[in-house]
Amino acid sequence: MIKAPANSMFHFYIIWVKICLINLESYQLLLWACLLLCPLCLCFINGILSFAETVCVCVCVCVCCPAGDGCGPSVLGPSSGTLSSLGYPGTYPNDTVCEWEISVPRGNRIHFRFAELDIEDSDCQVNYLRLYNGIGPERSEIVKYCGLGLKVNELIEATGNQVTVQFMSGTHHSGRGFYLSYSTTEHTDLITCLHKGTDIPEAEFSKYCPAGCLTSTEEISGTIPNGYRESSPLCVAAIHAGVVSNAEGGRIYVVSSKGIPHYEATLANNVTSTGGTLSNSLFTFKTNGCYGTLGLENSGVADTQLSASSVWEWSNNMGQHSVWAPSGARLKKAGPPWAPSQSNQNQWLQVDLKKEKRITGITTTGSTLREYQYYVSAYQVLYSSDSQQWNIYREANSTQDKVFKGNINYLHEVRNNFIPPIEARFVRISPTQWQQRIALKLELLGCAIPSVRTQERKAFLIPNTDICHLVFLLLDVALAAVLVPVLVMVLTGLILTVVCAWHWRNRKKSSEGTYDLPHWDRTDWWKSMKQLLPSKMVETEDSVRYSSSEVGRLTGRGAVPRLHAEPAEYAQPLVSGVTTLGARSTFKPDEGPDPGYSDPDLYDAPISPDVYHAYAEPLPASGSEYATPIVVDMGCHPSGGSSLNQPSTVCSFMGAGPAALLTRTDSSQSGRSAYDTPKNATGQVTPTEDLTYQVPQSSTQKPSGHS
């Protein structure tokens, strides 16, 4: 509480002293007597001496200043509050004094946080701010402050639940005074009414706002749900948003995000927000979500659920009849609002919600008609569960009925929140002040009342305390720690399943219809690479292949060992059905195609007679259409006059020594029959003149016979 005398008049005390001799000690005695009469005041002492023969009179005039003349706007709540010097943020007056006595419930202690401290004095003798533990004569000093632009960042703690704050000022020329907040020590994150969104860098945070922040002169910009500009004071914006009340203060949960191009100007809870332009960031508040409309605007509430004390009916000069009935009292509805037949404080508008609801706020407008600029500037709210017994809304810890500030014009909306909320079925609006005539449109804000079980669960899980808020954060972290790994594992499994299915499908497609050939031999890449590899590497593959027509001819032969020879002088042609001989090739190396030559399709059509293969010598015109493969019998070399169709003598190859596999390269040791020659259709050797590209056949054994 604030300690002040019973009245604000100056007090004059006159002391008559009969002495014969005045000296300095007597004058000091008179001074102390005046101070005892005004112990809490600054006194002006003036001694007037009058000498007579036997009587010496001294008059002491004590001018006592009221104890409250230095006190600025203050709110002293039961658990938090705000104090300031007179005239803040302007200069405080000269020669003033003020004391505040603060008490909180027993078992609690008080701490203070300074928003500003700017007192002109260097030695704290005339101008200062002093904090005491306790109240009354037994109080003890905690700290004493003075100085211009003093920064006090730490919390100042008292030892008990009672504190005295004393502010003294003498003659000065500058200084804004002081502005501070207090709360019980359980709220360690107490902030002042001047803290802004830019002062806290976290994207999400929780702070405790003190009561009385409407004493701040700082401006805010924005509204809910869009958000507030980051330069707005947090606690003032919280009052505007209806998150905390000015009478009690409370905890706020703030979320910062990217700014918006424009901030709306609105009036809510006695706080006017101004319009603003683009900013880098904004902040908004987390709430319990019970701020939805209750059906007046969207016709969820029927016309029969609206009633009033009276209705204004009238006719204009043209004879048109108009009724301003309760059904017109819907926010944002076009047309006339509700208006009573007479404008006095006995009028009311009633809403029946059919069942009890939790009502957290109300939004009102005036007539919204340019030609009838009527509106309600102040009103009270009454509520009931049976429409018989009515209660007038009061703020928490208050003994006075709450009067809400209404509209300031006929058009714009004004919102007021109920902290604590109302739980009732019937709500009445009773205007106390209006402009010209009572006219009103409204919407109620709130939600359904949870069931008893849900309420008990919420009371257990979501109390408004720091400890439970911390528990919630820990639960969120634990839940995230479990869900994130599970989601990662599930996603990984899905990705692996899709990849494996895709790979298996591709392999299945590539293997269809190719059961008789190795995978590498089915690829065009390997076919072209085999032409560039030496004979030894080629022979390591299963290069001897037979067509189905030749299999029968070779079944009677014994196993033929694989030949090992030096690399071919020329690249081996890839001719299906021809055995790789391992000796030097009889095919001519490519010297480049003739101009205009193009390779025909080797599979779709036979080679044209006038187009030659890039390597092989052409067969005679009388020969077969296709080249006849040379089948080598490792036991006997075919004679020049023999034919593949004629059976040959099977010679034993088992007794042949290593010399049998030597390639014969000395042309002087063999005759003409030792070379391959083209054959005609009858199997006879066709003499050829040019054997430039014929390569001798490897053989160390002569055929044992001719057929």
What's the SSE blueprint?
Elements lengths: L1 E2 L7 E5 L8 H14 L9 E5 L4 E9 L10 E2 L3 E5 L11 E8 L6 E10 L8 E6 L6 E6 L1 E4 L5 E2 L4 E8 L7 E8 L19 E6 L10 E4 L3 E3 L4 H8 L8 E9 L3 E2 L3 E2 L2 E4 L1 E2 L3 E5 L6 E2 L12 E3 L3 E4 L5 E4 L24 E17 L9 E10 L6 E2 L11 E2 L8 E22 L5 E8 L3 H10 L4 H46 L12 H7 L4 H5 L8 H7 L153
Parallel strand pairs: 16-21, 20-32
Antiparallel strand pairs: 1-7, 2-4, 3-4, 5-6, 6-14, 7-13, 8-11, 8-12, 8-14, 9-10, 9-13, 15-18, 16-17, 17-23, 18-23, 19-22, 20-21, 24-33, 25-28, 26-27, 28-32, 28-33, 29-30, 29-31, 29-32
Describe this entry's structure for a reader:
The chain is α+β, with helices and mostly antiparallel strands. Among the domains are: 191-287, LCCL-like domain (Ferric Hydroxamate Uptake Protein, Chain A, domain 1, Beta Complex); 292-448, Jelly Rolls, CATH 2.60.120. It has helices at 24-37, 234-241, 452-461, 466-511, 524-530, 535-539, 548-554; strands at residues 2-3, 11-15, 47-51, 56-64, 75-76, 80-84, 96-103, 110-119, 128-133, 140-145, 147-150, 156-157, 162-169, 177-184, 204-209, 220-223, 227-229, 250-258, 262-263, 267-268, 271-274, 276-277, 281-285, 292-293, 306-308, 312-315, 321-324, 349-365, 375-384, 391-392, 404-405, 414-435, 441-448. It has a 15-stranded mixed beta sheet that branches. Strands 5, 6, 8, 11, 12 and 14 form a six-stranded antiparallel beta sheet that branches. A five-stranded antiparallel beta sheet has the order 1-7-13-9-10, with no helix packed on it. The longest helix is centred in the C-terminal third of the chain and has 46 residues, at 466-511. It is found in: Membrane. It comes from Sparus aurata. Residues 662-707 are annotated as: Disordered. The chain crosses the membrane at residues 470-502.
